[in-house]
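Forum: Protein Structure Q&A
Topic: Joint prediction for protein chains with partners

I've read a bunch of threads here and the consensus seems to be that you should model interacting components together rather than docking separate models afterwards. I'd like to see that in practice. Below is the full input, 418 residues plus whatever partners are listed. Could one of the regulars post the assembled result?
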Amino acid sequence: MVCSPLEQFAIIPLIPIEIGPFFLSFTNSSLFILVTLQTTLAGVKAATRQGGHIVPNAWEAVGEMIYDFVHTVVKEHIAPPAVKQRVFPLIFGTFIFLALANLLGMIPYSVTVTSHFICTLGLAFSLFFGISVVGFQTYGLHFFTLLLPRGVPPALVPFLVILELISYCFRALSLGIRLFANMMAGHSLVKILCGFAWTMASMGGLMYVACLAPFLIVSALIGLELSVAFLQAYVFTTPIRIYPNDAMTLH
Amino acid sequence: MPQLDQFTYLTQLVWLCVFYCTLDVLLFHDGLPLLSRRLKLRSLLSAGVVFRAGVGQHEASWGGVVIEGVQRGVGSLSSSEARACQWLAGKSSAGRPRTKRTYGALLGEIGASSMLARAVPALTSGYAEPAAEGATPRDSGWPAETRKKINRLGARRVLLPSTRTTA
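Posted by a regular:
Agreed with the consensus. Here's the joint model:
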């Protein structure tokens, strides 16, 4: 029996729902998005029980640490208070959602929601589109001055505007692809090495002893993947911090 | 490759949208305001009233620090933090308590009056009664004006109109 390392990413419908030509089933991926949502809400509920205490207990301390972390990084990148107030809840929600989704994907036999590019690209494009809409609402057509940096020689203007436009459009694409690629590559690698370890153990003899090597590598990789889960959530929210500042302040 | 199965795209997008928007709405409405208000009230408590009980400090300057700390604590409590405090202790439009009378509301109350009474007993006791025999030399060294001012500020109870919590 040959198990493909990509089998773990299969989408399986749990509750089939078809409305005309549209396939809207509740799948295993949807289940894990729901589990992520419930875990986030349970954590926030635990951190805000009865309004809180002067000296925080463990759950409140964790909630406050995460709040403080996100608040600090938002303050670093965004100066105007008006922009900060509007953007902070979005950054917090996105960070928590992605960090927990990535972490829940590390549980054996679970589904990593963010290992599908449709999810990550959908999130990235919708956030990016929203930021652009807010930029246009604030500045109107003057928003296009974002594509022309100051101090550019007139001869270079046409080329630079086209380059900046392509770069602007590719921001959303790179945001989604980065997260998807990291998650998919990490999980595929762990699956492949586990396959090696299992095959070597099945062969017996010297190979049974040698299977310890891929097993140890897999253990180290799982530690790496846990840190990558948090890191990729942080890296996903970094451009979402920077782009609204660019869009609302036009520099 | 399962990522390229096009018939799963719509379902993933729709359910992601539904659950992500639910999370954002619940965070924006309930979770984040509670967290932020508690953090603001805690920073107010730690920054608003500061008592230095160190040995060897100059008495006159210490009195000035205490008065300034109490004034700042009392004054800042009439700001947005105090309104947040009142929100925590207040009632919803239906008349039911919005939250239980919590430590968050207690923070506002003890910010000026009870901490003052607990932390500086030597100062407050010298005003209403004659100095006791076992009083520290510090009591007699305090100017009367300083002690009167501290007691007046402590007694104002401008923090919250309702009664002290029984928490």
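The first strand of chain A starts at residue 13 and ends at 15.
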